[in-house]
Task: structure prediction
Amino acid sequence: MNDEILKEIKESIIKGDTKKAKESVEEAIKRNIPVNKILNEGLISGMMVVGEKFKNNEYYVPEVLISARAMNESMTLLEPLIVKSGIKPIVKVAIGTVKGDLHDIGKNLVAMMWKGAGFEVEDLGIDVPPEKFVEAAEKGAKVIGLSALLTTTMVVMKDVIEALKSAGMRDKVKIIVGGAPVTQKFAEEIGADGYAPDAASAVDKVKELLSI
Result:
């Protein structure tokens, strides 16, 4: 029976059915199913399917946003229990759209997919200056995601990498870059550790870079 309720949670996340997801999570809590099982086999497992569907063009941005909302709403029920049980997130990551760029849809999608993968995400927002990314690294982020939608602002990504070097933090973090004008070649040219063409790939890239 417990497997059945976990499957219900997973399916609700895939379908983006917030009401059903919350009801199923409440039921799982009532049955004393361990929090890590609800999290991993229900919520995260569902978001991983959403990520795959997005990668394969079976889902588009609206579907991902609806599933992410179901995940986030359900997480509010679990968060107090997660704190109490002492479950640590897989890894701490930070993401932001670089200085001069006010676009956030791509950045928001990546942040949601990272949360959906069980990462602790610090969303730095838009128009983020290099020193803010340095601060995130100093506060323990192991991966920093840099987003840009304009060719004029993607050059700021290199400034962030240089700022991390100056602060002595470059070897302590992995840098992933992405956004419409950004390419693998550009990522290599500026010395980034990885490039993600879409939000689902950004999850895979973190896991690959950190071997998790």
